[in-house]
Design brief:
This protein is mostly helical and 190 residues long. It has one domain: Growth Hormone, Chain: A, CATH 1.20.1250. It contains 7 helices and no strands. The longest helix has 37 residues. GO terms for molecular function: thyroid hormone transmembrane transporter activity.
């Protein structure tokens, strides 16, 4: 809001941006929830990767907006990305860690998210005080989601590799027992 008041002094409708973010986030949650239901397994994670990359890019685009209407468009895209991210969080957690540990995984994720969300505004204020504008603050704010998107891109590959290794080790165990049966006297009785 301070950025809008500073850059678009003649515009007194900065509240429109918050409405755009909120409304498009709601639409995004509905739309991406339905789309996510159609995508099987961990492929949903690629929706979140695209969302993170777009979120970072849109954050970097905020100071580049020369007219208020361009900022409205950027805020609509930010809301859509937010809707996608929030909607896909739980299904992806269920796919990665299973239903028994999904709530703990979501808790860790939200806990980790709280750190930059708490530290971000004061850091942006310090950067504004030092540079005299918000360009650096918004540009740097776009970097973590983009890095997160790149890291998230590799999660399904690593997850598949871990599952393959677990399956092959289980296969070896059953094969060993088939070829070398355990003597009956070594099996404990209850």
């Amino acid at each position: 809001i301070n950025f809008v008041k500073e850059k678009f002094k003649e515009n007194k409708k900065e509240w429109v941006l918050l409405v755009c973010i909120g409304a498009s986030s709601g639409v995004g949650r509905l739309a991406f929830g339905k789309i996510g239901d159609l995508i099987p397994g961990l492929r949903k994670i690629y929706m979140q990767v695209a969302s993170f990359m777009a979120l970072g890019l849109m954050s970097m685009m905020i100071p580049q907006c020369a007219v208020f209407e361009a900022l409205v468009v950027v805020c609509v895209f930010l809301g859509l990305c937010d809707g996608c991210f929030l909607t896909m969080m739980a299904p992806i957690a269920f796919e990665l860690v299973g239903p028994m540990q999904a709530s703990q995984a979501i808790g860790y994720l939200l806990g980790l998210m709280s750190l930059p969300m708490t530290a971000g505004p004061p850091i942006a204020g310090l950067l504004h005080g030092y540079f005299g504008n918000y360009t650096v603050a918004f540009s740097l704010a776009g970097v973590p989601p983009m890095i997160g998107g790149v890291v998230l891109f590799f999660v399904p590959l690593i997850h598949r590799r871990i599952q393959r290794n677990q399956e092959s080790s289980e296969e070896k165990l059953t094969t060993v027992h088939m070829f070398f049966p355990v003597p009956a006297d070594s099996i404990p009785t209850t």
